[in-house]
Amino acid sequence: MNYINKILVTVILFVGVSFNSYSQKITIKDRIKAEHIYNFGVYITWKNKSQLKESKKFQIGVYGSDTTMYNLLKKICSYRLLKWKKIEIVRFSKINEIKYVPILYISNSSNNEVPKIDSVISQWSTLLVTDSCNTFKGTMINFFPRNALKKVEINKKNINARGMKVGAMLYVVAKNYEADWETMLQKSEEELATEKETVEQQNIILKEQENKIKLKEEHILKLSNNITEKEKELNFKQDELHILQNDIFNKNEALNLTSAILKTQQLKLLIQQKDIKETQKLLQKQIDEYKIQKSKIDNQRTEISSQQTLIDNQKSKLNRSIADLKKQQLVLYFVLIVLILFGLMSVLIYRSYRIKKRANKLLKLRNNEISRQNSEIIQQKEEIETQRDEIEAQRDSLATQRDKILVQNKDITDSITYASKIQQALLPLDLLTSQLFKEHFIFYLPRDIVSGDFYWTRKKGDVIYLAVADCTGHGVPGAFMSMLGVAFLNEIIDRYNLLSSGELLDNLREKIIYSLHQTESNESSKDGMDISIIGYNEKTKILQISGANNPVYIVSSKQSAVGSQQPAVSSEMHELPTTTASCQLLEVKGDKMPIGIYYGEEKPFSTKEITIYKNDYIYMFSDGFADQFGGPDGKKFKYKALKNLCLQISNLKSEEQEEIVRKAFFDWKRDYKQIDDILLIGVRFE
After folding, report:
1. Is beta strand 439-445 parallel, antiparallel or unpaired with respect to 127-131?
2. 666 pLDDT tier (thresholds 50, 70, 90)
3. Distance between CA atoms of 451 and 483, rounded to whole angstroms?
4. Which of 146, 162, 299, 449 is most buried, with most CB under 10 Å away?
């Protein structure tokens, strides 16, 4: 048993000495170069992606007899990915062994072979990385060039000529590494001196154990082989563990993002339900008033119709009576003629006399009946004329009431239209927005004549401010609140020195609460607004963002948050159809507080800072676009579709973007009623 323990101790000492000897070869300088080579794969874009897609792994080639960089790259890349692929380190000892790899590193011991190697790889889009190569002008990236202040030389022209593109972030990363070269090299020398002393001590121990090791060499060799096999198994399991860890991390990130989105949507749904209930109450009140007016008008119309029917019936009876009277007159004339004939014969015929007498008697009765009917007809005519006069008076009264209502409606409409002109005058002029922003478009579509949405912009010093707000309600109440918001923002920006975007919102909330006399006990005054505001510094290129229940979208190919105090920035990747570069959408969320009385814990509004790069596009909006019902199923447009729309149009001109946004809205809306004011603004700074 003691014999086996001694062998194990000897093996451990041998492995420890070997490991320390290997560690001595790897310096801080080598580690920095290895990290740089990995970063080249991150920030270099290969235009011909077909060559990359043919390989299942992202390959990095190492040429030369020096194994230090080969082993170091294998170690640091064993758990990393490039272009969403696992990394494979390939070693070439001869020129004829070289095959296509996206990145090829040549150690400084092989600098004399660089021209030949370059001629071999010229047929591919291969990034050539050299070390202290100062004789060949075709280098792409060269470590430690002669007589240069930079530790990394990047030849953009040669890289572009081989079908590759250098990302701007590569220069930033290279500069950050160069700032620490001297400090790291000094630490490396101190570590080497310490390790040298350790190695000397271990060499003494090694000499003492050398004789014992020779006696047990065969047995140690067997144990070494077993250890090698165990190490291979361990490395394989570590690879599997790294892959599983990456999968778990990605799934956790996706789960957290989904949870945050779900909570946000639930909160917005509660707010929308509350607004819908208030709107339904107001709408029901207006509907009841409309039904009462309509009922009165219908009753009056019914009375007019019944009176007209009665007049028509009386006229019909009168016409029939007149016709009967004419018939009776004709009969009377005929009887008179007969009586005259009988009268002429009365002297001769007695019987004829009696008939004549009877006929006269009958005629008298008929005359009395006709006289009575004439009296009734005259009386009915007078009654009809009286009813007609009453109906005409009622008709005139209704016409007068209708004219008054029309005049009142016209006065109200004229007043609201004039208020709309005042509201438009308070909004920024097109000339001002054109002067402040390199490119911009404004899609502004009020639901009524006046709007509860507004936008505001001012410049103070080197900072350009832009705000988009959605006030409580729409129509006249929302317009009053929007004019208050514009007036207060102008007063705040004129009164104070340069403020952060969060401080602007704090001051605005204070003025709104004070002006509307809002208190926690006064539940009748809950008016306010949701708003997002940005402040862009033209010198530092830093964009400050704050929001009250309103987010801001930034579409860029190279964005990162630089000053966020909380995880309010989420990103989505989207491949643009017209370019090979990936485009990133950053959603900068606002604080979950309105501008107005808030019954939760009232905190200062936070300020997020984002570095703005050339061609970055910023989108600001109210909730009207995303909440609009439409489409084939009559559902809401939603924020996911709005994000996709912003990603698709971000590389177009502002005029084209506005046309596409307008067409997308009306294509979605179809024949559905517009439910809220619409405001969407896109800007691009110089």
Report:
1. unpaired
2. very high
3. 10
4. 162
Work out the mean pLDDT of the chain and round it to a whole number. Answer: 80
Instruction: Output the DSSP codes for 423-464.
Output: HHHHSPPHHHHHHH-SEEEEEEE-SSSS-SEEEEEEEETTEE
Q: How do 81-82 and 85-92 pair as beta strands?
A: antiparallel
Q: Which residue has the tokens 């698709």?
A: 648
Res 673 pLDDT > 90: yes
Under 8 Å between Cβ of 454 and 421: no
State how far the alpha carbon of 185 is from the alpha carbons of 181, 324, 430, 494, in Å.
6, 132, 57, 53
Query: Which position has the token pair 């949701």?
Result: 530
Q: What is the pLDDT of residue 564?
A: 41
Confidence of residue 327 (pLDDT cuts 50, 70, 90): confident
Say if CB 125 and CB 103 are below 8 A apart.
Answer: no
Residue 476 CB burial class (10 angstroms; 0-12, 13-18, ≥19): middle
**Could you tell me which of 175, 140, 131, 167 has the C-alpha nearest to residue 46?**
167
DSSP 8-state secondary structure symbol assigned to residue 371:
H
Cα–Cα separations (whole angstroms), residue 15 to 11, 23, 73, 208, 227: 6, 12, 22, 16, 10
What distances in angstroms separate CA 416 from CA 279, 451, 529, 544, 590, one per listed residue? 20, 11, 21, 36, 32
Give the separation between CA 168 and CA 21, rounded to whole angstroms. 39
CA 21 – CA 583 distance, rounded (Å): 47
The DSSP bridge pattern shows strands 141-143 and 127-131 to be parallel
Choose the weakest-confidence range: 313-322, 375-384, 393-402: 313-322
Which has the higher per-residue pLDDT, 49 or 127? 127
Reduce the DSSP state of residue 172 to 3 states and report it.
Answer: helix
Q: Taking Cα atoms as reference points, which of 151, 139, 155, 146 lies closest to residue 105?
A: 139
Is the pLDDT at 345 greater than 80? The verdict is no
Question: Is residue 298 classed as helix, strand or coil in its secondary structure?
Answer: helix
| Cβ–Cβ < 8 Å for 684, 654 | yes
Residue 417: how many CA atoms within 13 Å on its side-chain side?
6
Contact between residue 164 and residue 40 where contact means Cβ atoms under 8 Å apart = no
Average pLDDT of the residues in 180-208: 65
Could you tell me whether strands 629-630 and 164-166 are parallel, antiparallel, or unpaired per DSSP bridges?
unpaired
The pTM (predicted TM-score) of the whole model is 0.45
* Residues linked to residue 683 through DSSP beta bridges, in sequence order: 440, 618
What is the token pair recorded at 181? 């070269």
Mean pLDDT (whole number) for 443-464? 91
Q: What is the pLDDT of residue 565?
A: 40
pLDDT in tens, 217-235: 777 787 778 778 877 777 7
In this predicted structure, what is the pLDDT of residue 178? Answer: 56
Region of 631 (left: φ > 0; alpha: ψ -120 to 50; beta: rest) is left
